[in-house]
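Summary for the lay section of the report: proteins are chains of building blocks that fold into shapes. Here we show the chain for Polygalacturonase and then a coded description of the shape we predicted for it.
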Amino acid sequence: MKAVDLKGPCKAPIEVYTDGTILAPPNPKDLNNEWQWVKFEYVDYLTLSGTGVFDGQGATAWKQNDCGQNPNCARLSMNFGFNFVKHSIVRTITSKDSKNFNVNVLGCQNFTFDGFRINNPGSSINTDGIHMGRSTDVKILNTMIATGDDCISIGDGSVHTTIFNVKCGPGHGISVGSLGKFTSENPVEDLLVKNVIFTGTQNGLRIKTWPSAPGTSPITGIHYEDITMNNVMNPVIIDQEYCPWNQCNKQSPSKIKISKVTFKNIKGTSGTQAGVSLICSSGVPCEEVTLSNVDLTYNGAPATAVCKNAKPIVQGKAPQCTAAPAA
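The coded shape description reads as follows.
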């Protein structure tokens, strides 16, 4: 099936029920430069359900993906786009081997994923599981995500987001950001991540913002609770010096204020000695960061915490901060 755009408004609630496997063309060019392969737009009361698999057949596209170094790279289609969809649910279907992000959620309200599955190999480039932005009351429940980039990435303008009972791995963890690159960004507020298991991921719980960038919209009200880390390279990380592929410099600090962030009941194993890394902005240091019962080990010994421009409140068993080494 080539690219489809299912566009409202609709006159009644709509259910799309899918069994079997739907295949995208393996050659990225056959999707005619579309941002998304299967797109739902301007629909209220949508249900997408069934046991179906949407297979993006992305192996060819991953080999061609040079977008990390080439700003003029060829566009690669995501499996799903949900744009300006309200009061809707996606349940029990599978997104497989997307050429790009598996799912993009933009401008949605009261939108739920329940029993959703994402299955991409860990080597697949830029295949974020679910990316959201400019959306309110998105819930990701009872979902399993295996991918080559962030399992879930929370972009600007995401408000009142709930992530509950999710398994992530392989992948790069659950990320807020990256943020700060643009002045047009909106704040990220009120995120709950609870009962999540990370297995073999590059990161666990991550907040990332760009230095030497103009964006100022704050990140506040972030709560992580009941999290298990199984051999996660960087389990808990705030990185306000995020600069992949050396696309920026760190001459001026990030302008984004991070506040009211709680890490509660975090347990498991770290792949690095510093299981907690809080690298905040020197211009707007982090405030009201709490480490409550953070019990991580590295090679059988307690993992440590490194901090920069952050003075976390420590409750129960949790590592005490040591100064981060100079960059």
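Put simply, here is one thing we learned. The longest strand covers residues 219-232.
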